[in-house]
Amino acid sequence: MEVKEVLQVKDSRLFTAHPDQPLSQAVIMMAENDIGSAIVMNGETLAGMLTFREVLRILAKRQTERRVGPTPPIAEIFVREAMDPNPPTGHPDMDVDELRRMMVDTHTRYVPVMEGGKVIGIVSFHDVAKAVLEERNMENKLLKAYIKDWPSP
Description:
By secondary structure, the chain is α+β, with helices and mostly antiparallel strands. The strands form 2 sheets. Strands 1-2-3 form a 3-stranded mixed beta sheet. The chain has a two-stranded antiparallel ribbon with strand order 4-5. It is elongated and about 85 Å long. 44% of the residues lie in helices and 18% in strands. The chain has one domain: Roll (CBS-domain). The protein starts with a helix and ends in a 5-residue tail after the last helix. It contains 6 helices and 5 strands, in the order αβαββαααββα.
């Protein structure tokens, strides 16, 4: 199975943020749409990935920094400060097993899928698990049907 097959069966909407956008706006957008990540775009160019992991990291960092005065509110943090500027990426013809290995090795839950330098989708670990499960279920049904129709000797 290839990544393009996973993209075909999932919601194709891309949720994006801009590096200079306040982090609070991006977090609200992610929460309102029940998504765990947003692609950070600077025009037509991938600038990075923002996931709740990066949000938690920047908030924890800000909370534990030794500062004079109060910790600045989330509204004063920008997406560029929290995002991963170099996320691992996939491509449509990539084998799903290769994608899974990359996701496991890099501890990545969300991977932008690129084609010709353009973001064409995002695949989550959940998307991959669901696609693999559905593929295995189909294979099992086909095998059971084949065995059931096995000719008698």
